[in-house]
Amino acid sequence: MIWVVGAGGIGAGIAARLVGADKSVTVFDNWAEHVDRIGRHGLTLEHPGGVLHTRPAAIQLSDPAAVAAAPAPDLVLLAVKSDRTRDTLLQLVDRLPPRCPVVSLQNGLNEPVIAEVVGASRTVGAVVRFDGALLGPGRVAQQRSDGDLVIGAVDGATAGVVPGIADRLRAALPVVVSADIWVELWSKLTRNCLLNPVSTLVGLGLGRMAAVPAVRTVCLRAGLEVVAVARATGVATEPAIMYGPDVERLLVGDPEAVRDFHAAFERTYARFPDLKPSMLQDAEKGRSVEVRWLNGAVVEAGARAGIAAPVNLALTERVEELVRGVRTPGVHNLEGLA
User: Fold this and answer.
1) Are residues 151 and 75 in the same domain?
2) Cross-strand bridge partners of residue 104
3) In whole angstroms, what is the distance from residue 220 CA to residue 251 CA?
4) Would you call 46 helix, strand, or coil by DSSP?
5) Which domain holds residue 226?
6) Which of the listed residues 179, 194, 216 is the one where a domain comes to its end?
7) pLDDT tens digits, the chain, 338 residues: what are they?
8) Backbone region of residue 67 per phi and psi (left: phi > 0; alpha: psi in -120 to 50; beta: other values)
9) Total number of domains in the chain
10) Span between the terminal Cα atoms of the chain, in Å
11) What is this structure's pTM?
12) Which superkingdom does the taxonomy of this entry point to (predicted)?
């Protein structure tokens, strides 16, 4: 039995694919209407290859009796928002068998928090390299046909269980096993920090925002700050994480490398003009956003390592102002950062 905890765009999409591959899945979420719809009518995934209608079990996280009665899992896929990681795991940990691994499908660096609750020997890191968006109760969509899931051990204690997890999940989606998941996690954090808050502030999908030169400049600066902080913590991000150009040349402001970044960034997202990152989706729907656990986490890690991250700090503060209603979406929100 696989528990998918958190049935947002990513969690619900993976749950549907797993059920479609004949895996036993129970979905947990706090949105009562969503859970009820899945329980009564099933979970539908709309993707480039067609429509997949599935019938996983669905349980509301706020119903202790239902959670207690759920069949115990042998694998947990955690897909809740980062601000809910600790509380959600504390609610469920007594239901998890002693060796049941927990795989984080979340944005940010949640693995240390997971390890504090369930133990490092049961914590598996992951990077989701595809999209997902809820269309409504019981309905989820994916726009991209490419992408995969990268998983890896956060330390040596979990190395032995990762291949088995990968084999189970490959029945439903492409899975890559990483020899160093921290490189993958910090690389994904780099992309998240340069895409999510900027898209949210300007209120545009990826392709449309990538066509604006000032936006590209802010994205470049935010991303390079994350790379610098990662290095200060002992992690080297993927060489091509800044869309191909050499990171060393970008860090010293080489004009040719900067031009190459702008061209590659715009080209990468031109096919997806209205694809919205999760933070923009959340802001538009009035939900909490994860900027404090993405860009804010970079600022905090940088402070501990003696590395300033002023662009990420400004993005964190401005997104939070936007959510509070102090700001309205638009390119004007990037003033002073480009």
Assistant:
1) yes
2) 78
3) 10
4) strand
5) 183-334
6) 179
7) 999 999 999 999 999 999 999 999 999 999 999 999 999 999 999 998 899 999 999 999 999 999 999 999 999 999 999 999 999 999 999 999 999 999 999 999 999 999 999 999 999 999 998 888 889 999 999 887 778 999 999 888 777 899 999 999 999 999 999 999 999 999 999 999 999 999 999 999 999 999 999 999 999 999 999 999 999 999 999 999 999 999 999 999 999 999 999 999 999 999 999 999 989 988 998 988 999 999 999 999 999 999 999 999 999 999 999 999 999 999 999 999 98
8) alpha
9) 2
10) 49
11) 0.88
12) Bacteria
Same domain, 150 and 226: no
What are the structure tokens assigned to 180, written together? 């160093």
The total number of residues shown for the chain amounts to 338
**Same structural domain, 68 and 116:** yes
CA 205 to mean position of chain CA atoms: 17
Of 179, 214, 233, the last residue of a domain is: 179
CA distance 214 to 210: 9
CA distance 5 to 3: 6
Q: Rg of the Cα trace of the chain?
A: 20
Query: Does one domain contain both 169 and 187?
Result: no
Q: How far apart are CA 128 and CA 147, in angstroms?
A: 8
Q: Which has the closest alpha carbon to 141: 56, 49, 271? A: 49
Q: Are residues 175 and 187 in the same domain?
A: no
CATH classification of the domain holding 274: 1.10.1040.10
Nearest-10 Cα torsion for 74, 290, 230, 192: 90
Angle at 21 between CA 15 and CA 25, to 5 degrees: 40
Domain match, 146 and 59 both: yes
**84 in the same domain as 14:** yes
Q: 216 and 134, same structural domain? A: no
Instruction: Report the amino acid identity of residue 291.
Output: V
CATH code assigned at 143: 3.40.50.720
Q: What tokens were used for 62? A: 């706020």
